[in-house]
Each structure stands twice: as C-alpha cells, then as structure tokens.
Amino acid sequence: MDPYDNDEFFDQYAQMRRSKEGLKGAGEWPALEQLLPDVTGMRILDLGAGYGWHAKYFVDHGAASVVAVDISSKMIATAEAKNSDPRISYQVGDISQVDFEADAFDMVFSSLAIHYLPSFSALVNHVKHYLKPNGIFLFSVEHPIFTASGDQDFVPSGDRTVFPVDRYFDEGERTTEFLGSQVTKCHRTLTTYLETLLTNGFAVTDVVEPTPAASLRNLPEMVNEWRRPMMLIVKSQK
C-alpha cells in the first residue's frame, strides 16, 4: 500500500502546513512559481498531484487543461474535494507507468514526487515521449544532500548539531521516518538528475536550491532550512 493511503499517515499529512494552507504554506513555492512559464492555453500534466493545489493554480492562470495523476486514491479524493475544476482531470495512477500519446502536453510538472521513483531515466523517457517539442519539464525533488544518508535529521556533534551526508554516491533506496511512519525514497546524485536530462535531449535552463519563503522564515520548523538544502528545482526544455 502507498503510505499516503494509510489512514494514520494520511491524517498526519493533513496536519502539515502545506496541506492546510496550500501553495502559500509551501516554503519552496515562491522559487518554483518564478520558474513557471505563462501557462495560458497550455495542456499540462501534473505528476504526483497531491491535493491538487498546483493543478488548480494552472487552470486559474489560464491553462487549457490539466491531467493530474497521483498513486494515492486518498490524495485524489481530497484534490477533487478541494480543487475541482472542469478543466482538471484527476486520475489515480503510478506516475512512472502512466502513458499518453506522443506530443500530448506543453508542460510536464512534478512537485516532490520523483524521489519516490526507482528510475529517473525511465521517467524521463516517458516525459520525452508525451511532451511536445520545446515543451517544458519542471520538477522539484528532495535535494541529494538531504536524501544521501537516509536519516534526514540533524545529529549531535560536540556542542552543536550537524546534518549528515553519507553514501552520497551510493544511489538507491533509503528508508526514513516521515510523519511517524517508515517511508522508502530513492536517492540519486545531482549528476544523475542533470546528466539524465542532457543525454535525453533536454536543455537544462534553471537549477534552484530554494530557501524558505520570506513569510515562513521565522517559523520554528524553518530554522534549520538555512543550514542545508532540502529541495532541488530543475527546469528543462525538450
């Protein structure tokens, strides 16, 4: 079972700031928004749609249609309840397996979902197939420094705490505790993210390590976000 379909885990996720407040509660959103193109008239695929906050943003800003896919039926049900729109088609599905016609979308977007997939290369091949020529592939993932050791917590070191970076070049699965549950993610290096795009014919146009939004910087849970990168945003073009 996908952890997001576990009742206890999903209830914990619902208490997160980004779940309650939407995009304004997501620390990386201002940086991500700056990288978005003018979406007017676009056909967009949202991989790992979650509550549907991004899908609703796209149609509210003029997108012609959005196909929003998430493996969690609970996520999709919540998205349909919170962010329904006739221009959005919500689908339950594995984002590494869904298939569409060639040149079907102007932009493929993914927020904090790709680090759950075992193969980034396979995903990029899919995206290349159903993205139009000159189409945009924009995604955020947990930063490789954040995923490397698997612990994802600061640890004591003398009279201070430090963030461990270990096994960086040992790509593969990492099991970490998230919202009180054991969750499996997949670590890969920055080189793998960028070179996979380049070798598949994508032009990498932007790489951003976002810091918390100004409105969130003084929150207790954001204090450590200045001490190591947690997220990585990459924008590329076919």
TrEMBL record:
Gene3D superfamilies: Vaccinia Virus protein VP39. GO terms for biological process: methylation. GO terms for molecular function: S-adenosylmethionine-dependent methyltransferase activity. Residues 45-139 form the Methyltransferase type domain. Keywords: Methyltransferase, Transferase, Ubiquinone. Signal peptide: none annotated. Pfam families: Methyltransf_11. The keyword ATP-binding does not apply. InterPro entries: Methyltransf_11 (IPR013216), SAM-dependent_MTases_sf (IPR029063). PANTHER family: TRANS-ACONITATE 2-METHYLTRANSFERASE, TRANS-ACONITATE 2-METHYLTRANSFERASE-RELATED. This is Ubiquinone menaquinone biosynthesis methyltransferase ubie. It comes from Lacticaseibacillus brantae DSM 23927.
